[in-house]
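[Discussion] Sanity-checking designs against the backbone

I'm trying to build intuition for which residues belong where. Below is a structure token string of 411 positions. I'd appreciate it if someone posts a full sequence so I can compare it with mine line by line.
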């Protein structure tokens, strides 16, 4: 066997030598090169056919027989043969060829994980935010601090190149400015409501977001809902009315602030979706939310100074007997949860419709209401509990109808 291998190797080497000798003798270099390549390839085929050791190609640690040009393309050794050889080697080297490729994460799993993170961050934000507002009843100051926390994380993201910095024109900034104004109003109204009434009641009122989402989507996106979808909103409205009539902590300022936050937040979602769908715009969901947050911080500072003045100061807090260190820790946790739950919310908005986003947001109310009732031990009457449950059932029915009829009529 060793003598046979040596003979084959010697034959292959002599064939290659004869091929390159032909190159030097031939007057046409291109013709000579083709002749040399043919001789070398034919020799390789003879070696493989003779049972000699095959040429190692380093593919997955194994060896591969080189294809013989005489057995492909009718014996023609043209460019197509070389392309087929390269393609075969690449296919053998790919992970999928050996079953080593990892399947992509399904879109449903990705959305489910994002929604879960969104819910958890929102629960922690509402609990800590309520604790802060009970100690420091200044909703505009708290709103400004939350936007400042978000601006800090956004600046850090851009400085560390975790996400490409946007390059916008003045016209694009002008389009985002109304969204920033609405964003400031929506969060200020939410903090005003949380400061006046219980967390569970605020979120019971905010369960009416699908109603405002359908209304605004019909007005600005041309999406007309069916009669069944409109009918599913009746228990939502009825449940909110029952819960409001029997709420122990009912307050008109808290009630109307929560209703105003519904209108402003849904307006922001609808207009943001319209801006993200504009093919002429180069903004993604992360940069849109980031710029809007920074602009909201700049807008909220003069509003805070005009309405509440500088009250969130160490001297004032010490005079009220508040533990400054504990308050700052809670404010930092609330601000961090506020930014990232809003960021996840906007990332979801770029992947789903405004109405579906509103449904997921309403289902989130269940988790927030239950957790806040348990944490704060909020007293709830049977009628109040029935009204809250009726509103949430209406939201669930609404979401099921949206899944059954995903396409809406366009006006």
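Best answer:
Here's mine. Compare freely.
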């Amino acid at each position: 066997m060793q003598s046979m291998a040596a003979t084959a190797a010697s034959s292959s080497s002599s064939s290659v030598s004869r091929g390159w000798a032909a190159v030097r003798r031939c007057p046409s270099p291109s013709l000579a090169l083709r002749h040399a390549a043919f001789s070398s390839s034919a020799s390789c085929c003879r070696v493989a056919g003779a049972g000699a050791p095959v040429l190692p190609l380093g593919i997955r640690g194994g060896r591969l027989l080189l294809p013989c040009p005489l057995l492909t393309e009718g014996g023609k050794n043209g460019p197509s043969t070389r392309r087929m050889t390269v393609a075969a080697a690449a296919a053998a080297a790919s992970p999928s060829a050996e079953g080593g490729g990892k399947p992509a994460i399904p879109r449903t799993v990705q959305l489910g994980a994002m929604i879960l993170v969104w819910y958890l961050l929102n629960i922690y934000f509402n609990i800590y935010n309520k604790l802060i507002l009970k100690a420091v009843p200044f909703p505009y100051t708290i709103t400004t601090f939350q936007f400042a926390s978000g601006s800090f994380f956004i600046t850090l993201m851009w400085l560390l190149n975790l996400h490409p910095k946007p390059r916008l024109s003045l016209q694009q900034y002008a389009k985002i400015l109304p969204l920033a104004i609405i964003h400031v109003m929506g969060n200020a109204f939410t903090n005003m409501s949380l400061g006046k009434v219980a967390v569970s009641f605020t979120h019971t009122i905010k369960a009416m977001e699908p109603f405002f989402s359908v209304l605004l989507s019909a007005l600005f996106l041309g999406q007309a809902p069916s009669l069944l979808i409109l009918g599913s909103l009746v228990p939502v409205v009825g449940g909110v009315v029952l819960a409001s009539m029997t709420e122990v902590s009912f307050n008109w300022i808290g009630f109307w602030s929560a209703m105003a936050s519904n209108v402003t937040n849904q307006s922001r979602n609808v207009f943001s979706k319209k801006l993200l769908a504009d093919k002429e715009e180069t903004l993604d969901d992360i940069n849109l939310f980031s710029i809007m947050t920074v602009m909201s911080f700049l807008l909220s500072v003069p509003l805070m100074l005009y309405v509440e003045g500088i009250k969130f100061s160490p001297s004032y807090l010490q005079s009220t007997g508040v533990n400054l260190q504990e308050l700052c820790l809670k404010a930092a946790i609330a601000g961090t949860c506020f930014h990232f739950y809003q960021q996840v919310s906007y990332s979801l908005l770029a992947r789903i419709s405004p109405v579906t986003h509103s449904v997921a947001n309403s289902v989130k109310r269940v988790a927030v209401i239950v957790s806040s009732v348990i944490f704060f031990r909020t007293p709830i009457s049977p009628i109040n509990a029935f009204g809250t449950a009726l509103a949430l059932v209406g939201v669930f029915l609404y979401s099921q109808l949206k899944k059954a009829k995903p396409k809406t009529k366009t006006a």
